[in-house]
Design a protein that fits this description.
Blueprint lengths: L13 E7 L3 H12 L7 E7 L11 E5 L4 H10 L5 E5 L3 E3 L3 H11 L5 E9 L7 H8 L23 E5 H6 L12 H11 L3 E12 L5 H21 L6 H11 L6 H9 L5 H39 L5 H5 L1 H11 L3 H7 L3 H11 L3 H10 L5 E5 L5 H7 L4 E6 L3 H13 L5 E3 L9 E6 L9 H9 L2 E9 L14 H12 E7 L3 E7 L9 H17 L17
Parallel strand pairs: 1-2, 1-4, 2-3, 6-8, 9-10, 9-12, 10-11, 12-13
Antiparallel strand pairs: 4-7, 5-8, 6-7, 13-15, 14-15
Helix pairs in contact: 7-10, 8-10, 9-10, 10-14, 19-20
Length: 557
Amino acid sequence: MTATAPETLGADDLTVVIPTAGRWEVLARTLGALARQSVGGFEVVVVADGVTPPAPPTGAKVVEVPHGGPGAARNAGVASSDRSLVLFLGDDMVPDDGLVAAHLAVHRARPEPEVAVLGRAQWHPEVAGGRVQGWMDRSRSQFEFPDGPTDDAGFGRFVSCNVSLKRAFLLAAGGFDESFTYYYEDLDAGWRLGERGMRLHYEPAAVARHLHGYDLASLERRFRGVAAGERHMAELHPWFEPFFLRRLEDARRGPRRGPWWPVAAGLLGSRPGRLADRARAGESAWYHRRLAPGFLAAWHGAGDLAELRHYLGDHFDQELLEGHERLVEEERLAAGDEEEFYRTSHRYLYDLTVFAMSGTKAPYLGEVRAAVPGGGRLLDYGCGIGADGLRLMADGYEVSFADFDNPSVEYLRWRLGRREAKADVYDVESDEIPGDFDLVYCFDVIEHVEDPFAFLARLEDHGRLVAVNFLDEDHDDTSLHRPLPVRRLLDHAARRGLRRYRRYHGRSHVVVYEAPRRAVAGAGRRRALRHTRSWTERAVGALAPGREPWFPSAERG
């Protein structure tokens, strides 16, 4: 590759690109720090990703783009400039006064097109003392830098919160892949740049201070995004082994850890020694177990979304996905009646996919798994797009599906075919459904029917056990939901023989009970004991903790 003359690389050859999704206050501090740099003459481009600035940012050109994620925003920022160097910063990365000069010094010394420069990220003093931030540093869960300057930090460390490179070299590699909406777009770009010969120089003197406070809730949100990005990365690149997936799955299967481990690790910090090592391992196991449910829900949800995109092809509409509740309600009102809506709606595919992506039913599936050993025969009644049954099939259950014929079931048949999976799909109106399943489950369906007790009777015809949930009324519910007599329904399950009753999400009463014709006959004493257990479960179930969410083992490509 042809080298650029060192004397031509100065601040006036540099564009600083900062994508933002609306964090205007912290962005103002980042821009203020750029204005105080020890060198001047560089251009600053703020890319507003699906948002409009309340006022023009000081000292920056603004490019407004539809929401597409930071990778798409960075591409737009690069396209808006013709300068030969580009420096990517996060909107919450407040640079030290010498950051730009440090990047430029390396490029002047190493002007080869393939040389890129990685700066250092440290916590801003205002947030550096947080317990979560300490764990992220000790576990290297966000940034992992070399111990000192190096000319080859490796493509895996290409992180665009503080990195610079030659614009032409980036464009030749295709820029950022815009199919990544958030997270892992850096690793994907770094890999493609590495395939073209990138050498990533690490310059610890180019420091940016990360002004982002974390608590457990925000950390969980972050890891949901990480899951979606990691799954997409695994789908695109067969060589990629999911980093966090393996760790969080292992932590979920492992023993519980007490909350004192993060405290102990925080006190010991980075000290050497077996005790400190043990504390840090316990701390990470505690965090990983806490993060696993949201992460795994997002991992499997990303697969649901990818599958819907594939199925609909050019007909996939992101606006229908993002506005699914309002648009489905409009479609229902336009339909002649609810039955016509359910039989004909294609928009409902989006609504059901988003609900599957939410992980709401993960603890319900945990109750099914606890009630019936792996390999049991299950019936997914009112299956819709079959998300629950497909998850259980992935863990070795024999699942059949039942619903009336509609676009959702058509999509389910396609999903089964794509997996080369053999499963019966029954039409509840025309097919004779067997009555010998180990368990028939039906979640978030009974609130749609006119007579819930008659509906339970139908479920009881098909299995030894019934698993179902009853929702308390909520004023924010869609008009598709009917109010349920929850107390009477719980009493019904208790009379049949209640095996398990727990309440999830504050309003969802999940029960597993025996179908009446399958009830075990026995002596009066045994019947009395069974009756006592059933009503005891009915009395205390709503107050007792539920099971942990359950997810099938994730596919690894």
